[in-house]
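step=encode ok
step=design start
structure_in=
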């Protein structure tokens, strides 16, 4: 196992399953030369894939990384002790991996922390074992932007659902304070965000107790360092929502984790800003509880809530809910 110092092509890899065609099975990227025009090495890209019992997806994940045709790649796979065919697949490609292990762990975040501890690259990204790169030139683009001094490089992602629906998720510019306010806009698509290793070093380890929002914590900790950032309007990755993904299985716990991470990371705000944010977060928690109640509170209950939290008067959504409580009563 070693860092790849040359670009791989289809002829280097094991043959794909007979029923698979197209990228990254029977199509490849034009490989980059081993060194840049000035003779120096390309920026090293460290990719970590946490994995557990996703043998039906992980080969596509692996091939989408290796067939980027990128000559300075450090690919690390941390498997949590899979009992399906994952290990068999990983071993097919182990000569191209910088490191891999299969052993029980404390969950996905623990696996990502382990993987990061082995990273020596200039750029860091993690790619889950049911996701893949669908743009064969992604690493080339990212490395060129890194050479221009960008420290946080984010592209777009394609979400694919079991019913065939596809949804594009774009990365949008954000400051640390804005990204804390998770209710304002959709978060960045995690596999399409590459972070300078010097920035990432100050973000790890991530909280092992986080089930699904360790990426939110990573991005907040990155933004807190004011990295030079760029957001590229190109679809680099694909996330599969296949019914068994963690995001789908534990959606109900997502809000609590958002609040937990935002509250914890807000400690990096100046004191006054931190105090004001805590009020804003508590307001939103109160509004969220109204929205997701089985029945909407009546007008009297809404007035009582407003009297107990006068700061709710600043929120347009609260007044819409107030109006709705009146209309529902009349109906």
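sequence_out=
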């Amino acid at each position: 196992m070693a860092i790849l110092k040359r670009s791989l092509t289809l002829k280097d890899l094991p043959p794909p399953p007979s029923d698979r065609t197209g990228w990254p099975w029977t199509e490849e990227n034009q490989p980059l030369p081993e060194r840049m025009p000035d003779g120096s090495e390309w920026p090293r890209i460290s990719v970590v894939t946490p994995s557990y019992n996703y043998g039906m997806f992980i080969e596509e994940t692996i091939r989408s990384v290796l067939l980027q045709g990128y000559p300075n790649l450090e690919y690390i796979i941390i498997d949590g002790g899979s009992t399906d065919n994952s290990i068999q697949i990983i071993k097919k490609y182990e000569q191209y991996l910088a490191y891999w292990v299969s052993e029980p762990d404390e969950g996905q975040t623990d696996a990502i922390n382990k993987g990061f501890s082995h990273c020596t690259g200039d750029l860091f990204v993690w790619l889950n074992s049911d996701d893949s790169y669908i743009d064969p030139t992604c690493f080339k683009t990212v490395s060129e932007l890194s050479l221009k001094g960008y420290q946080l490089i984010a592209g777009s992602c394609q979400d694919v659902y079991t019913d065939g629906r596809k949804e594009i998720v774009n990365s949008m510019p954000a400051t640390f304070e804005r990204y804390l306010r998770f209710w304002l806009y959709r978060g960045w698509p995690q596999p399409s965000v590459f972070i300078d290793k010097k920035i990432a070093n100050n973000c790890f380890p991530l909280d092992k107790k986080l089930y699904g929002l360790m990426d939110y914590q990573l991005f907040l900790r990155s933004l807190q360092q004011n990295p030079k950032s760029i957001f590229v309007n190109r679809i680099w990755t694909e996330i599969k929502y296949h019914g068994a993904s963690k995001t789908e299985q534990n959606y109900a716990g997502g809000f609590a984790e958002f609040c937990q991470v935002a509250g914890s990371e807000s400690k990096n705000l100046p004191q006054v800003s931190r105090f004001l944010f805590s009020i804003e977060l508590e307001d939103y928690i109160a509004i969220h509880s109204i929205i997701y109640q089985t029945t909407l509170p009546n007008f009297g209950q809404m007035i009582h809530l407003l009297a107990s939290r006068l700061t709710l008067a600043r929120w347009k959504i609260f007044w819409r809910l107030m109006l709705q409580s009146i209309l529902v009563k009349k109906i």
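step=design ok
step=annotate ok -> The chain has a mean pLDDT of 94.
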